[in-house]
Structures are given as structure tokens and as C-alpha cells.
Design a protein that fits this description.
- With 358 residues, the chain is of the alpha/beta class.
- It has one domain: 2-enoyl-CoA Hydratase, Chain A, domain 1 (Alpha-Beta Complex).
- The chain is 45% helix and 11% strand.
- A 7-stranded mixed beta sheet has the order 1-2-3-4-6-8-10, covered by helices on one side. Strands 5-7-9 form a 3-stranded parallel beta sheet.
- It is globular and about 60 Å long.
- 49% of the residues are buried.
- The model has no long low-confidence stretch (mean pLDDT 95).
Length: 358
């Protein structure tokens, strides 16, 4: 018997046997996460915490192309240019509360990261207890390209990635395959797309996670190579500098297709976002919880419309798509330590409160 628990066509929330199921249902929008979808997920998770009949939670998507390509930032843009900063603040605060809830959830939380998984999609999957990827997975944290920083707790995951993989991913927006995602600590298990339906059926039938191991594949079995391992020495050489600018200069002083691609990606993104991302990841290396990272991320995003580049970044990359953002600081060389500190300074009474408002 299936119990439906919401009426939003963009997301299907229900209980099947002993499993709480969440299916993102905006395939034409790459399942971009709206505010309403995020709050619906949060409400369901809170309800299921106290429901003894729900043994585990599964989140997937109605698409073979994308699990979730990120948050639906078009509404953020339109409210922002009209001067409504309160909507933006509430959007991110409630989304971050959801991320923290997932990271600390009291029951198994199984995320099927099949297809494009970026930004907000990482936030509702990579903090779960069981993160599954497939040969279709493409994972990235590309926020600097629109004037943001890796958020939804992503800075915590990046800071805990091996070596300097986090800095590499965070300031280049590198796109990872399934093997890369596991290596970087954003996922746990690789599953063949042809096995997904059977695995989901087994999980629903048993209400237990034991069967996941039976479906695990090695990357080589599915013809997937780990590019992060292949480029490990380059990542450590170039992304272990003291600053993002130091890394960029070292890249631009060198030759080769790989270094040229990374330098170009950094130069195209918001200089302020790049510098703040680097500082955030350095700080997050000492954090003991995702909550600390979310609080730091919130300080940046709270200021991002008034003091940062997000509005023109979204305009250039999502709205007009001219790919010609007018960054407030034109180059990484022009970003001072004082600018970074100002974006990441405590917010006083506006600090992130991880208790969801009723």
C-alpha cells in the first residue's frame, strides 16, 4: 500500500511498506530544487523520524539525466533584482536546515545520485548515510561560476576530501564521474543503472540496507576511471598553495592542457567567490560538524546579493546566458584579505539558526 503525503507535482513524497520515499519530479528542469520542494522534504523527514513503521528513507528522481542540478535560483534572481532579500535569506536558511537534518538523520537515508548532481542536489544526497552513484553520475560544485561559494554543506565535504582535492573542486567547479565522487568522499557505492529498479524493490521489500552491498560494482567493471587519482600529483602540486591566487599564478606560469583548463575555469569565475571559497575550505578543515560549515556558508550567501556577485552571475549564466558577468572585483589579484573577511564575518543577530521555523 502506498500512502501519499503531499500534493506538489514537483515532488512525490510517500510511504511504501516500511520505506519513506522522496522522488524529485521536475525532469524538464533537471529536477532543480525549489523552496517548496525543500520544505516538503524537511517536513516529511521530521514526520518520519517519529514513525516507527518507516525504517529507512530513499530519495531519487524521475529522470535518467539528472538527480538534481541544484537549487532553483531563477526565483532568487527575480526577487533579488526587485530588492527582496528576505526571500533569499529564508530560502538558504531553510535549505541549510534541511541539509543539517539529513546529515544527522536518525534512520538510514539512501540517495540515488543518478545523473547530474550539483549544488543543492549535493545537499539533499551527499550528507546521507548511503550515497549511491551510477555510470551516469556527473557531480560538481560549480557555485563560483555564478558568484556564490560551494554551499549546502558542500564546503564541509570539500574540506574533508583527500589531499587538496577540495580546493581543486571548489575553485574550478570540476565535473566528477562516479569513481571521482567516491574518491572525493561525496559518495559511497557504485551501482549499475540496469540494477537500480531491482535494488529499490529489494530495499522496499526488506526495509533494510544490507542488500546494497550485493549490487556494488567496481569502477573498472563499468569502464569508469578515477580522473582524480590520475591527476592526483598535479592537484597536489598546484592546489597546495597558501592562497587561490598563488594557485592561479602557479597554473598560469606552467604549460599543458590540464593546467590551462584549470586556470581558465578559475579566471572565468567570480574572483571574490574564488578567494572566499579558499578561505572557507581552510577554516572548514578544522570543523567537527557540518553545522559549522553551514553557518560559515550562510554568512557569505546572506551578503551575496548586496555585496557579492550573485545577481549578475545568475543573469549571465542562467537568465541571459551571455556568459559575460560583470564581476564587482575584476580579477583575483584585486581581492583583498579585508574583502574576504567582510564577506565571512559573523552576522550577529542574523546568524544561521538551524531550528526550522514553523
Amino acid at each position: 500500500m502506498v500512502e501519499l503525503t503531499n500534493n506538489d507535482p514537483d515532488i512525490d513524497i510517500r510511504i511504501e511498506k516500511n520505506v519513506g520515499r522522496i522522488t524529485l519530479n521536475r525532469p524538464d528542469k533537471f529536477n532543480a530544487l525549489t523552496y517548496e520542494m525543500a520544505t516538503a522534504i524537511n517536513a516529511a523527514l521530521l514526520k518520519w523520524q517519529a514513525n516507527e513503521d518507516v525504517r529507512l528513507v530513499m530519495i531519487d528522481a524521475n529522470s535518467t539525466r539528472a538527480f538534481c542540478a541544484g537549487g532553483d535560483i531563477q526565483k532568487l534572481y527575480h526577487t533579488g533584482i526587485n530588492g527582496d532579500l528576505e526571500y533569499m535569506h529564508q530560502f538558504w536558511a531553510d535549505e541549510y536546515r534541511l541539509n543539517a537534518l539529513i546529515a544527522n538523520y536518525c534512520k538510514p537515508y539512501i540517495a540515488f545520485m543518478d545523473g547530474v548532481t550539483m549544488g543543492g542536489g549535493v545537499g539533499v544526497s551527499a550528507h546521507g548515510s548511503h550515497r549511491l552513484v551510477t555510470e551516469r553520475t556527473m557531480l560538481a560544485m560549480p557555485e563560483c561560476a555564478i558568484g556564490l561559494v560551494p554551499d549546502v554543506g558542500g564546503s564541509f565535504l570539500l574540506a574533508k576530501a583527500p589531499g587538496h582535492v577540495g580546493e581543486f573542486m571548489g575553485i574550478t567547479g570540476a565535473r566528477l564521474n562516479a569513481a571521482d565522487a567516491i574518491h572525493a568522499g561525496f559518495a559511497d557505492t557504485l551501482v549499475d543503472v540496469d540494477d537500480l529498479d531491482e535494488l529499490k524493490s529489494r530495499l522496499i521489500a526488506t526495509g533494510k540496507t544490507d542488500c546494497i552491498a550485493e549490487f556494488e560494482k567496481t569502477p573498472s567493471t563499468l569502464g569508469i576511471s578515477c580522473t582524480l587519482e590520475e591527476n592526483a600529483s598535479l592537484i597536489e602540486i598546484f592546489f597546495s598553495e597558501d592562497s587561490a591566487l598563488g594557485t592561479l599564478k602557479k597554473l598560469e606560469e606552467s604549460n599543458g592542457d590540464w593546467v590551462d583548463a584549470q586556470a581558465k575555469a578559475i579566471r572565468q569565475s567570480s574572483p571574490l567567490s574564488i578567494a572566499c571559497t579558499w578561505k572557507m575550505l581552510l577554516a572548514a578543515r578544522s570543523f567537527g560538524s557540518v553545522e559549522q560549515a553551514l553557518a560559515q556558508e550562510y554568512r557569505f550567501v546572506w551578503r551575496s546579493m548586496a555585496q557579492g556577485d550573485i545577481l549578475d552571475g545568475i543573469r549571465a549564466m542562467i537568465i541571459d546566458r551571455d556568459r559575460k558577468p560583470d564581476w564587482k572585483v575584476k580579477s583575483l589579484e584585486g581581492v583583498s584579505d579585508e574583502m574576504v573577511s567582510a564577506m565571512l564575518a559573523p552576522l550577529g543577530e542574523n546568524e544561521l539558526n538551524l531550528v526550522m521555523k514553523s
